[in-house]
């Protein structure tokens, strides 16, 4: 998709989202869903950047989100740092972990990177529950039950009044999407696509795989960890259940619905998937099964997602007008 068209689509999406509280602001449950849509749109967009554009099959995005959430809660509680600063520190901690995970992945390709990053995801839960986690302040298997609310310029945000928090997260989501858009349209994005399509050829042209792969690991981990911090201060409690397979499957559905490598498809996919996920909540344990089945069906029916479908419609119309 052309960069100008992406910018217009982004502007339309965020304008529509910004006016939603005018209709649903009095209903806390719907506002909560919208806030969660914003949070997961950032996580999914970061995952789309590293997988859809850079071609790195990383399955560690949920792990970096959890690292950011726990880091922000612990830094805020243990060192008395205001949450508004703690979320950025948490992003930095997640970025460090992202680089540490990215270093061994530089020598690997394809499914092996997926295995290494998913191993980080699997290892994180016992670490948070174990002696190391308890020593750091994770609360072990019990989790962290009280987390300080977000406070900016003396105003304390509360989940009981979600509209102000919605606009705060909306601002963060807009900034994150703008950063991802600028990366995609810059020479970084060109380098990512070159490495994705043919790493050997791109290397011959002087594109440093080491530099750009570490860069995308650090950037996506930072943004994911930071939004994880905002999530922690919004929900006010954390547990390792976030590392369960249902959240991982939900993120996969978001990408498939939106379209992998079809930014801002992840944002569109997040709003559709999270809303659908909430509607399926009464069925309990069967929810991940249905979402998993949806991934299979959507891959077959809409391989390029909703944004890919829109692109095809526009290209057909353009072809008709030019002929």
List the helices and strands and how they pair.
Layout: H1 3-19, H2 21-24, H3 28-53, H4 61-79, H5 83-105, H6 111-129, H7 131-136, E1 151-152, E2 155-156, H8 162-185, H9 187-197, H10 199-204, H11 209-235, H12 245-258, H13 265-279, H14 287-301, H15 305-322
Antiparallel strand pairs: 1-2
Number of strands: 2
General form = globular
Q: The biggest beta sheet, please?
A: 2 strands, antiparallel
Point out poorly predicted stretches. Answer: none
Question: From the helix content, strand content and strand pairing, which structural class follows?
Answer: mainly alpha
Q: How many helical elements? A: 15
**Average pLDDT value?**
85
Strand sequence of the main sheet, in spatial order?
1-2
Q: Strand-and-helix sequence, N→C?
A: HHHHHHHEEHHHHHHHH
Q: Report the C-alpha radius of gyration, rounded.
A: 20 Å
The end-to-end distance, rounded to whole angstroms, is 21 Å
Oligomer: single chain
Helical amount among residues, as a percent range?
A: over 70%
Number of domains: 1
Strand content of the residues, in percent?
under 5%
